[in-house]
């Protein structure tokens, strides 16, 4: 697959060859969905809690005497059968209880397959150079308009590209992320992806390319 490479003015200045087989050969919707759901679910805080009767503040005294009133035998005001009392089966699970996981091999294959889906739809804009002389939002907007980007956009940048990062912050509908952290969720959550040619090559040849049996997650390649 030959992917066109553009300059910041929207003019094609070359092409970039990508082996489709290295990205899965064809789009695998079930694998991509499984990875997308995992990334989305793991974003939740997972801190929902309810209180048992022992955690509810209040007195433990008997509400009224046991006999002679004609009413039911009373207990504490914190009992689960009374309004404001504790829950019989309180929710106590922590954040880790809500975090599904996937093998590293499947995760990386899903990320690369999501990239293939975006390439097939011509939604990846590969730029020869994303460096700017100053952090100006005007320059970023002009670049996006030159490439006819009118929907949500993800700009993948190297960590040291400060000017581009600062210039993108005030553009509506534009999100930024470190180029080595591209994954199925961030790719599919935006209509367009803008990335420099060198950063795309680094991502393709980096930890994401290790999809064999011996694949192991590292601090940088765990995505």
Précis, in short:
With about 220 residues, this protein is of the alpha/beta class. Helix content is about 25%, strand content about 15%.
Give a quick set of tags describing it.
223 residues, alpha/beta, Ribosomal Protein L4, Chain: A, 6-stranded mixed β-sheet, 6 helices
Fraction in beta strands: 5-15%
Distance between the termini: 25 Å
CATH homology superfamily name of one domain: Ribosomal protein L4/L1
Largest sheet properties: 6 strands, mixed
Helical residues, percent: 25-40%
* CATH topology category name of one domain: Ribosomal Protein L4, Chain: A
**CATH top level of one domain?**
Alpha Beta
Low-pLDDT runs:
none
Order of helices and strands: EEHHEHEHEHEH
Shape type: elongated
Q: What is the average per-residue confidence, as pLDDT, rounded to a whole number? A: 89
Q: Work out the radius of gyration.
A: 26 Å
| Structural class based on helices, strands and sheet pairing | alpha/beta
CATH architecture of one domain: 3-Layer(aba) Sandwich
How many β-strand runs?
6
How many helices? The count is: 6
**Widest sheet, order of strands:** 2-1-3-6-4-5
Describe the structure.
27% of the residues lie in helices and 13% in strands. The relative contact order is 0.17. The protein has helices spanning 29-41, 104-120, 137-146, 162-168, 184-188, 197-205; strands spanning 2-6, 12-17, 124-127, 153-157, 174-178, 192-196. The protein has 223 residues and is of the alpha/beta class. The protein contains 6 helices and 6 strands, in the order E-E-H-H-E-H-E-H-E-H-E-H. It has a domain at 2-37 and 102-209: Ribosomal Protein L4, Chain: A (3-Layer(aba) Sandwich), CATH 3.40.1370. It is elongated and about 95 Å long. Helix 1 crosses helix 2 (104-120). Strand 4 (153-157), helix 4 (162-168) and strand 5 form a beta-alpha-beta unit.
